[in-house]
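Repro:
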Amino acid sequence: QVQLVESGGGLVQAGGSLRLSCAASGSIFGFNAMGWSRQAPGKQRELVAQLTSGGITNYADSVKGRFTISRDNAKDTVYLQMDSLKPEDTAVYYCNADVLTPWDMRHYWGQGTQVTVSS
């Protein structure tokens, strides 16, 4: 059983910063890609940032230059540093990862953490 648990969401004023964390636990051999997606009310879930096992990053155009994804392999944790936040960044943010276990590789999602940016 693998769990992804996000933390670090909250309420922040426009122009402020937040850092989201996503800690993985369970029978984990390793990870392929890890990333963050978000879903705003009434909208579809969208990719925000992704980090491959080879270190390649991919960002949504709307967050390029403001958000940074990183990972700590020793802690099985992925981070999302969010700077210069805008009201349109308000959403539930979900961590996700391709996780290799002793049995298979599967895609997992966290439960989500709310980010609210006030104007």
